[in-house]
Structures are given as C-alpha cells and as structure tokens.
Amino acid sequence: MSEIDPITLSVLAGRMEQIADEMDATLFRAAFNPIIAEAHDASHGLYHAATGDTLVQGKSGLPIFVGVMSFAVKAVIEKAAADGDLQDGDIYIFNDAHIGGTHLSDMRLVRPYFRDGELFCYLASVGHWHDVGGAVPGNYNPAATEVFQEAFVLPPVRLARAGEVNQDIIDILLRNTRLPQSAMGDLNGQLGALDLGVKRMDELLDEYGAGTVRAGLDALGHRAEALMRSELKALPDGRWEAEDFLDNDGITDEPLPIRVALEIKGDRMTLDFAGSAPQCAGPVNIALPTTVATAYVAIKHIFPSLPANAGVMRPIEVKVPEGSLLSAEFPAPTGGYTETILRMIDVIFSAFAGAAPDRVVANAYGTINALSIAGKRKNGQPWVMFSFYGGGHGGSAESDGLNHGNAPISTATIPPMEILEAAYPVMFRKWALRPDSAGAGAHRGGMGAVYEIEVLEENGAEAFLFGERGRFAPKGIAEGQDGALNVFTYEQDDGWKTPPLASKMRGIKLRQGQAVRLETPGGGGYGDAAGRSPEDVARDVARGFVSEARADALYGTNWREVTA
Question: Which residues have CB under 8 Å from 283's CB, separation 6+?
C-alpha cells in the first residue's frame, strides 16, 4: 500500500501513540524506584525494523529519549545481525551510554515485534534505575574520570531468547547494584510494558492489517519531514552564533565552552558545534547519540507542533567536531550528561533568538542538581535517596517564565517531598520559591527554589552533588537580564560550607541533624526590564518574588505609585 487516506492516517497515528502511552503508564505504575514511578524518568516507543528510526514515542516519556533510543535500537539491530537468528520473543538489554546515549543509569530494553513470522518493527523501553553500581550511590559521580567509576557497563546482550528469560543476565544485574529489589522491580516493570506493547500491536494489526499500518508509519515519517521543511522555509535565511559555559568538569576548575553556529538556508538548517570544548577528564562529556538527540529536543521546543518522528531531522544537519566533549569516546565518563545537554539547549535557543526571538524562551535554570544522600539504617540495610530538583524557566515573548519547573530536557516531575520523606530517613526543612532569583525583563524569568534537607538517620549519611550554573548564570534574551546563580551549601560542625568547585562535590559527611541546602537558579528574563509594567512589578513585590530594594534597582520606582 503506497498511499493512505488522511483520516485513516490520523486514526493510526493516535492508536500507535496510545500504545506507547500505555507502555509508559504500565512502567510508571509497576516501577519500584521513585525516579521512574513518580518522576517518570522513562520512555517507550516504536522503531523502524531496518533503520531503527523513531516512528512513535509516548507523550509521557522524556523527550531526550526520542532520538537517543533510535541509536539504542540501531545498536541492537547490529548486535542481532552479528548473533544471527533473531526470533520472536527475543529481548536485548544494555546501558552502554557510548552506544545508546545518555548515561549508565538508563537501562534500555529492545524487543523485535514480529507479524506472521516477519519482523515488523521494534519496541523499546528505557528507564532510569536507582543504582547500577559504581563509586557513588545513585551513580552521579562528579569526580569520575572513566565510565567504570560511574557504574557497571552492560553492552547489548540477549536477556530473553524466544520468550525464555536468561536468569544468568538477571543475576549479573542484581549483583551489581546496591538496591537489587528496586532493580528487579524496575526490570519487571519494563518487561511488562514490552509485553503490553506486543499485545496492543497485535490488536492494531488484526484490525487494520500489516500493509495499512506499515503504510501509515511510512506516511508519518514523510509528513514529519514536510512539516519541518515548511517551518524552516517560513524563517529568514542567515547565520547566528551563541556560546555558553559549563562551570567545570568536576576534576579541573576550568570553564568549558559550548558553542553553536545555527544556519538556515531555505528548507534546511545546520547546527555546527565547532569550537566547543574538547573531551574532558570529568563526567560532563556526552556521546554523539546524545548530542543529536539534544538537537532534536531543542527543535521540538521551538516547533512544538512537530511529531516525535525521525522525519523531523531529515532537513537538519548536526555537525559535531571529533574529539569534543559532545562526541566523547569510550571509556570517557558521561554520567553528568544532563548538565551538558541543558547547556546545548541554552545555546541553541540563544542562537535561534537571532532568527525568530518570538519562538524561543530565555535560558532556564540549566541544571538538574543531581543530589544523592546515602547511608545505612540501624539494621545495616543500605538506603540511597537520589533525586533532581527544579528551578525557574526563562521568560518569553508571551509571558513570564514558569516558577519552579523541571528541566526542559524532560516532561518528568520532581518527586514529591512526601514520597521522599516516607521512603528515606530525611526531612525537608524547607521547600520554597527563592526570592530575587529571576532574571529581570519585560517578561521576567521564573523563580528558582530553596530546598533544605536534614538527615534523620542516627548513623548519618554521605551526600554527593552533581550540578551546574554555579559560575555562569542563565542568560536572558532580547535584552532580558540573567537569572541568579546556583548555590549549594552543606552543614558541618563549624557552620555552613560551600564546595570548592561551586556545583560539584562528593563524599560530604553528614551527622544526624545536619543538612544540605540547594538554592536553584531562576530563569533568564525576556525583553528590556524598562518595558515591564509597574503593576506586574508591584504584584511580584507583594507576592515576595522580588524584594523592594531589588525591584527599585531593576525596574525603577514607578511600581511604588501603584501600591500607594
């Protein structure tokens, strides 16, 4: 079937997206660890049988996984070809970030889907496991100089053969984690999601036939490409550049530049990252699959109507210099990939502001502040509280930035304080918006947050932080001002301390009753602060978002007449 009518195509697109959505929901309900169950750090999708290209992804999964999982499926296609004799019911599993992107905490399962004995497509599941070994509980090791210090590395291996699970692989997985019960629960959740995907695909093909569904998948790719080309043609031709910096690599306290040149010519676009820092010693490197996937995420933010389909990237060339921290080679550490891809999105937005400032927002807070607090309970049982934390989003042409949101690389949610306190021996002394953290502008940035977490366990604990934006604040655009810097402090017997590297530290010893504090950045502002209405400034002061003194300094004193 070479053509398909628009109504049938729309129905099929909705049905296939629903399959991925149901797979997401299945894992979220079944997972043991709160990073998947509560924060939704996972994703599911359908992928091309021959190329591994993304066909459909669920709406609840992390956007960064759209492009990354395509590379993961391609790796399995290559491995299956080498193994030979791919069968219905086979399942591959791996976490190697240099092959499949992101970092070693993200466990990938890939399953071929067969119809009438013929390979039709692949189903894939990825989820962030709570702990996969390595030197630091939770696996965000800011001092890692190779992947082996971050976690155990699993290449693509066959977990199941024709439906029969290989217990030896499971035994290896559970022996390489501090939290085997959590790992087993997450693995079963992912296997259940894949089983559901197979069932729903069977139902879909029973109803419409393999030929019609295959034609629909092909048409979705062509439509995605056509939509992207149409969007690009509506923009002015030109070349725009931007740069920003990572604080350091966790090893040497030297800033690392991320640079991009964005060029639009007709219905094509190039993103050239020449001039970005070379591969570094510490774990802010990312592999090439992650870089390409991040470019897609930024583009999806700029053009929100585009579908989650590989066709979007056909008119776009991503140039990444060899030897850079954006194309790191094994065994370079990649555990802090989140910080680097957030900076990539920032520079793409900043560059795109030259072409169409109304389409982009100012820089968001730019760090997930990956914080692990770990120890042992009185009975000797280990516990690991790993979570990420929110901040302010950038202002835009339409509105102020979002207060206390999650990072723009994901649709994940910040795990609720009540869930974390119930699961671990900690207490949140504070969980609040951070005054004076937003970048000023005609539309200000969103507010950052303040979190203060006290250790309750009498055995004490150790804390590990992997963050960014401690030295380089989130940028405003269109004359908007920068947001506040990230500030991390921790309590010791002689008072509160700050890390030497500003945003990264490991092995912080905490006694019972001591705490750590995160003061996260606000987003950058959009537009000249002189253009903000006195009424908006007065409202921000009344709500405690900005102090009177700072309001005077940033916006003048006209707002005082509104409150008089």
Answer: 141, 142, 144, 150, 249, 250, 333, 334, 335, 336, 466
